Structure formats: C-alpha cells, structure tokens
Amino acid sequence: MPTIKDVAVKAQVSIATVSAVLNGTRPVSEPTRLRVEEAIRQLGYQPNRMARGLKQRKSQMIAHVLPSVMNPFFPAMLKGIEDIAYEADYSVLICNTEMDEKRIRRYSQLLLEMQTDGVVITAPGSDAIHELARSLREHGVPIVALHGPRSMDYVDRVLVNDEECGYLASSTLAKHGHQEIGFLGVDGSTTSRLRYQGFIRGLQSHGIELYRDYVLLGQGFSQEEGYRLGQMLFSNPSSWPNGIVAANDVMAIGLWEAALNAGLEVPEDVSLIGIDNTLASIMRPQMASVEIPTYEMGRLAGEQLLARITKNQEGTPVTIRLDPRLITGHTVQSRG
Amino acid sequence: MPTIKDVAVKAQVSIATVSAVLNGTRPVSEPTRLRVEEAIRQLGYQPNRMARGLKQRKSQMIAHVLPSVMNPFFPAMLKGIEDIAYEADYSVLICNTEMDEKRIRRYSQLLLEMQTDGVVITAPGSDAIHELARSLREHGVPIVALHGPRSMDYVDRVLVNDEECGYLASSTLAKHGHQEIGFLGVDGSTTSRLRYQGFIRGLQSHGIELYRDYVLLGQGFSQEEGYRLGQMLFSNPSSWPNGIVAANDVMAIGLWEAALNAGLEVPEDVSLIGIDNTLASIMRPQMASVEIPTYEMGRLAGEQLLARITKNQEGTPVTIRLDPRLITGHTVQSRG
DNA sequence: TTGAAAGCGATACCAC
DNA sequence: GTGGTATCGCTTTCAA
Question: Which of A254, B252, B299, B329 could anchor a disulfide with B286, C-beta 3.0 to 4.6 Å?
C-alpha cells in the first residue's frame, strides 16, 4: 500500500501539503493541488485510518452492543445505526453479548482498546452492562442507550413508550368486547413491567376487571416460555381468558400454539395480540400486534451518538421517546 | 488514558520491557514482570490497538459484507462469524450493501483504509462485488465467500449444496404423491438456478413430468414477489399445481397468502414447501422447508478466514460445502 | 534480562 | 503557500 510519503515524492511536494490536500486544512494552490490529486490517483493511494486515528485519537468507529443479532427484534435497530454511521463515514462494530457477563466484560475492554468513538447500548441492565457503561463514560466515550437499561438516566436514551404498548394492546381487546383479559410477561424485565402497567391502564380506562390468575410471568421472551405459560393458562378447561396480550410477538406465537394444542380456535375462542411486530405481520393469518419503530429508533440513536461525538460532548442527557402503533390482524375477534 | 510509557515509569522499567510483558515476546524476570503487572493494574492500562495496528500493519478486525441484516437469512451467519472472531480476539465490522453499487464501492475503500485483516463476503456477485473482491485481493486481504458469488472460485468458499436443497424439496412433494409440481424462483439468481436444477432432478428421479407453465421466475426473493407469482399461478381456476416449491421461505409465505386469497386450502388443495427455514418453523401451521445451516456456515467461514490471516496466506482455494436438511411441516399433505 | 531508539503513517505546529 | 519536524502509542531490532 502506498503511503502519504509516496504521494509526496511523486507529486514533488512535502507530506504536509499532501495532508492539506487530503483534509483541506489549509489553502493549497491550484497547480499543486492538481499534481497531488493526480499522484493519488495514479498510486491508488488510500489514507491509513490507524495512523490518522492514532494521531487524532479517534477511530471513526462506533459500536453496537446488543443481546444477539439472531433475535429478530434487533437487526432493524442495528441497520438504523449503520445507515447513519455510513452517511457520516463511521464504521460499526458489532458486539453480541448473549447476556453473558464474561462476554460483556471482554467487549467492554475491547471497545476501549479499539478507541471506539461512541457506543450504542441495546441490552438489559445487568451488572456487567452498567459496569461497561461506567467504564466507557469514565474514559470519555459517549453512550446512547437504545431501548436499553431504563435506569441509565445519566446517558442519552432512545426509547419506545412501553407503557403505551401495553395500553394499546389491552385497549384493543377491550374495544372488541373482551372482558376476561390475560397477560403474558417476563419476570424481572423492565420492558415487560412497563407494558404490564399500560395493560392495566387499558383495562381500567375501559372499566374492565383484572383477573390475577390470567397474569403469568415467565423466564424470558421466548417462544418456549410463551408456550409453557399458555399451557398453564389453558390447563383449566372450564376457565380461561378470551383475550390475551403477550409481552412480545415471539411469546405470542408460543401462546398461539398452546391454544391450538388445547383445542381452542384463534380468534374464535381466544383473541391474541402481541407486541413488537417482529413476526406478527408475516404470520398467516396475520397476528395483531403493536409495532415498535425499531429502525427509526436506531437512526435516532445513531444521530444522537454522532452529535455527542462531534459536538456537545457535555450537556444534560436527552431522552427521546417514540410512540408505538397498533397493527390490526386476524387474531382478534369481537365478542358479544 | 494511560499509555505504555506511564506503565514503564510507574514500574521503573523501559517501555520495551512493558511491551515484552504484554506480549510475551521475550523473557522477563519474575520480579520485573510482577512490578509491571502491578503497574498495569493500578493504572487500569489498556493497550491502544491503533498504535499496535499501525506498527504491526494489522487491525485485528475483520468485516462481513452482506446485503442486509434485516433479511432474516443473514443474522445467523453474522453471528457465526462473530463467535469465531470473538474467540480469536478479532472484532467484526458490518457492511450492509443493500445491493447498492455506490455503497459497495465506498465500503470497498473503507475496508482498505481500515486495514481490515480479512473479509467475509455474503452477497450476490454483482460487478461492484467482484471489483471489491479484486481490490481487496490485490492488497493482500484474505477473502472468504460465504454463500456468496459462486463464480468466485479464486477465493475460499463456504457454501450450502443448493442443488440438493431443490432436490429435497421436490422429492418430498413427489414422495407424497404430487404429480403436478410448480417452482417459484428468481430470475438471474444463481442460488435460484441451482435450486431449480435440484428441483428438476427430484422430479426426474421420481418419474414426474415437468409442467413448464408451473415454473415462474420473479425479480427478487421477497414476499411480494412470492405473492405476485402465486397470483399468476392460481389465476387459471381450472388448472394449478397441487404442490409448489418456493426458492426461499419468504417467497413461500407470499405464495401461501396468494393461495388463501384464491380460495385454496393449504395443504388440502395445494402443498407448499420453502427453502432456508428462516421463518418456516415459526409459522402456524408450521411450514415445510429445507434447512440451511447458516450459523455453522458462518463459523466455518470465520475459521477459514482466520486460518488464512494467521497461517497459510497462500495455498489453493478451499471450498467447503454443507448439506441441507429437510424440515417437515404441515403444509405438505399426501395425495391420492 | 534489559534499555535506547528507529520506525509504522498520518496530523499539525512553526518557520519561512 | 509550502516544507520541516515533533508527535501519537506501540513493536522491534540492536546493543549492552
């Protein structure tokens, strides 16, 4: 690979001048500029970002820390971040945590070693995640929490209104005349808890009674857990809810399966609505869900991060909160 | 951030010795080693990878060039690559091409500027992609084509046996007694063409006639195209295939919808089978499909790439070809 | 077993 | 407008 020196020799100028042409940091006369540009072309010269980064103490790289790209909820966020980064000439490093403490800690160190200019965190707030955030901040690396730890109120955040998600879901069932409405969530998850709060508000605002037996919390947002909780819900053949909100689409699909296996028809016997709209729209029949603008959130997180990097490093943390949107489907049927 | 020099001062040794402790590149006496390690701990020192990379002319970064992480086919591959990279202390840069020539060209340049140590390419072989590969190779950057351009026989490749995918799909329908079998594919796609060839072989080996009218090629592997082609297939109310192979799951789902809209029951009136198993398993009823071991392929690609980077830079290109696996579902029903 | 010093390929300050 | 050169933080000879 040719270096700036090769260019300088070929164009018969100093490397300082080549640098000036490259970065426009100072005026260069037309003829020299042309000579330099010609030399660059002929040599196929490309500046070395490691050298530049070393000197400027920035890498033009940002990172996205997320649980796993294999979870369909996240790729759109990653894509949103990448699109913004691309436009601003930044590269994106990807860090799948798998919710593994050890892995998070190693990435925490790696990001520092790489001189990452900023980090978007999309991961539940475990100890290791908070430690990662603390360490990065301590070293002056800007952070944006994207649908991440809600408790990170000391960094910029891009969130969806999770309470509203739950509200939209239960309200929809209520409006369709359901009176006995269940909720499937995840124990210890802030997201699940907020959605449950909205769920309650939806019931209340329609004057519907809460059946505590129809509220079940599992261990994770998985299809298996949705199925397992579904089985419990339908285990009593004489009593089950006629409408159910699941804390996300994946659980809703497991729930759906449990309903079918219990001999129930959807939506004739029981209405279902998910949250996220990751998979709802591709199901047949299409499942009702509450859409979260994940791509847009990714873009906003990317923009906010770059703003912190290039402009106001300081300044009080910002919170951007987007609203979800109801997606109607064929798994909700009017009652009575 | 403390530098190697700070450590040296604190431990009262030269930076050369610190470096030796860090990298084990030469023997260091026990007492000095302990002093250095203690200094590193106390300062919270982390080596600067840009500086190291500049000197060593490698970045400890690899890249994954793929059409889009939002396409459910790719995340598992990316994850496989990342897992291998993580174990070997490499970072992964992500490059979504969106099949956009301009974007590919910019990434081509970026990867060079970043001093990327190696690249996994998972993208159809457009002009721009071949140009990217050529440019990287010219600069000595190892490449692995992961389910990528089949024509890149000058680089290592990790592929699935696409012909076999088609064969498994049509054979399955044949074994269930279907006689009039259709195929939905994509015009100009090598993947689609190979799967079609296997499809034909499946028919032949079961002595089944090919109905050319039931073979339709669209413009892309999308649900919309699946739907559109499906509509064409079902437009003649007196004649349609009773079994159809779609070149991938996403198209199969569009096709499914078209069938339902045409008033046909699946699988009573028409059997369907997809390829990829990206979405088939989560559909209800579960869709039949042919599974591609994408995660495992990603791992193999990562391993092969790292082998090239750290060991045999030279040596004739390797091709690793994995076999697909049939996933039975409820969209195929026996005939007659 | 250790240290001094020459780079790696850029940027940026200081002269001219 | 342009050139010389110190510098970024590290690795790697070469000497001692």
Answer: B329
pTM beyond 0.85: yes
Q: What is the DSSP string of B160-204?
A: E-HHHHHHHHHHHHHHTT--SEEEEEETT-HHHHHHHHHHHHHHH
For residue A32, the enclosing domain spans 4-47
H or E element: which one contains B217?
Answer: strand B215-218
Residues A153 and A170 in one domain: no
Residue of chain B with shortest Cα separation from A94? B92
For A152-205, write each residue's pLDDT tens digit: 889 999 999 999 999 999 999 999 999 999 999 999 999 999 999 999 999 999
- pLDDT > 90? residue A313: no
> Cβ of B96 and A79 within 8 Å?
yes
Secondary structure of chain A: what % helix, strand, coil (to 5)? Answer: 45, 15, 40
The sign of the torsion formed by the CA atoms of A257, A261, A265, A270 equals negative
- Mean pLDDT of all residues in B298-322: 93
Does position B336 have pLDDT exceeding 80, yes or no? no
Residues in B closer than 8 angstroms to A139, CB to CB, are 1
CB proximity under 8 Å: A 198-237 to B: 223
Q: What is the mean pLDDT of chain B?
A: 95
Q: How far from chain centre, in Å, is Cα A159?
A: 9
D1: residue with closest CA to C1':
A28
In total, how many domains does chain B have? 3
Cβ atoms of residues B249 and B225 within 8 Å: no
Q: Is the peptide bond before A267 cis (omega within 30 degrees of 0)?
A: yes
Task: Indicate if A244 and A126 belong to the same structural domain.
Answer: no
Q: What's the pLDDT at A152? A: 86
Q: Is residue B331 part of a domain?
A: no
The alpha-carbon gap from B35 to the nearest alpha carbon of chain A, in Å, equals 22
Shared domain for A43 and A124, answered yes or no, is no
Residues B80 and B301: beta-carbon distance below 8 Å: yes
Q: Which residues of A touch B89 (CB under 8 A)?
A: 110
Is there a single domain that holds both residue B216 and residue B309? no
Nearest nucleotide to A52, CA against C1' atoms: C10
Closest nucleotide to the alpha carbon of A53, via C1': C10
Confirm whether any atom of chain D, the nucleic acid strand, is less than 7 Å from CB of B47. yes
Contact residues for A87 (Cβ-Cβ < 8 A; gap 6+): none
**Tokens standing for A97?**
């945590």
The reply to whether B20 has its C-beta less than 7 Å from any atom of strand D is yes
Nearest to A115 among B50, B68, B86 (CB): B50
What end-to-end distance do the CA atoms of chain A give, in Å? Answer: 75
